[in-house]
Amino acid sequence: MKTIVKIILLGTTSILFASCGAPAGNAPANNANANTAKPTAAAAAPTADALLALDKQANEAFFKGDSKFFEGVLSDKMVMINGGQRMGKADVVKMVGGMKCDIKDGWKLEDPQMAKIDADTYVLSYKGTFDGTCTMDGKTMKQPSPIRGATVWVRNGDKWQGAFHGETMIIDPKNPPAPPAPVNKEVAKKDDKAAANSNTAAAPAKPATGNANTDALVKIHNGGWEAWKAKDAKKLEELASSNLSIVDPAGVWFGNKADTLKRWNDMKCEGITKVAVTDGFASAISPTIELLTLKGTADGTCDGQKNGPLLQSAIYVKEGDAWKLAFMFESPAM
User: Fold this and answer.
1) Which CATH code of 2.60.40.10, 3.40.50.300, 3.10.450.50, 1.25.40.10 fits the domain covering 214-332?
2) Can you tell me the distance from the alpha carbon of 8 to that of 145, in angstroms, rounded to the nearest whole number?
3) Run of H or E residues at 279
4) Full-model pTM
5) How far apart are CA 281 and CA 208, in angstroms?
6) Cα 74 to chain center, whole Å?
7) Res 116: pLDDT
8) What are 31-73's pLDDT values in tens digits?
């Protein structure tokens, strides 16, 4: 299990973020005659190809362990889930500095897909294929491939910065990966005993809590799980923003609200008696955008596969007085 977690940890950090030099729209020059002054131009939206090209630059920097590059390209609000742990900007920069990769030429980032969250926030998704290894903490692991990556970009003045990044393996539902090998119980017992007897073992850290919106967003998100369980299409429609997009646990991109809701409503599920949302932690990307990270679980099966815990990162946008789900990234919890 530790090996698998390490592989996922390496995989989820292979492609991060890059800055966009495209300037936002500039206001027209002052005019002495106020009646003839033109309104400020709307900020230009990025293109999927432009963001993908910048992600490729960031990928190269990552393979070189260029942590300084990421100090400038990540938003101070940046969050990602790595090996099941929530990480901020400082954590990611430090991690990149400790990485050493040997990736063969010919790696690809392709199939760019972009969705709007608001005028200053967009999500870019793509497929990545690699052949090579990365080393961290003395452990060398083969780079997972193919993967589906997604980055949430936010406008900061005249550049774009990464506020979230996630990756998950692209899985064929008809040919899922083999489950991890069973743990050797005798070895596990010895490890547990050694840890219990260690005089240097640190006390577990107190779990961090999210911001003031955490409880409200967890309640809304749990309502979404309950609506999915009950096949309540109307409720799911109400909870979603008009720009809803997702990356599902199999690494499939759904780029609009209609396709996303159709996927949720068409899933063939059996034996689901309970759903749960835990470990919720919300942080603000802007006054009207929140990022909620959590773990969601359900029993039963869907599309012939047994359900298990999912790590979810959900972007909520404020529409009037209500928070609506605008983007969600899902990956199996190892």
Assistant:
1) 3.10.450.50
2) 11
3) strand 275-286
4) 0.80
5) 8
6) 14
7) 96
8) 434 344 444 456 789 999 988 988 888 888 888 999 999 999 9
